[in-house]
Amino acid sequence: MPAFAGSVARRFPAVWDAYAKLGEETAAAGPLSERERRLVKLALAIGSGAEGATHSHARQALAEGLTPPEVRHVALLGITTLGFPASAAALSWLDDVLPK
Length: 100
Known about the structure:
By secondary structure, the chain is mostly helical. It is 80% helix and 0% strand. It has helices spanning 3-11, 13-28, 34-47, 51-63, 68-77, 79-82, 84-97. The radius of gyration is 14 Å and the shape is globular.
């Protein structure tokens, strides 16, 4: 867990527990696989311009067995929807956490 998220969890455990439960329930509510959910969450983080969330979901994707080229592909797919600058920013965020 990223340092700041851990800090929130320690300071507000009831809120963190509710947040974690919501995540579990939304994951179980549909037919997507764990891999598909991770790719969607990464895409949402990139699309919303959330650097920290992009870092977090990229790290989790690697831990769950996705490859760096697969993770980078998500950012490349954003070029036609988000625009080149947003996708380039996302690629730079991914470079912060992915092996070269």
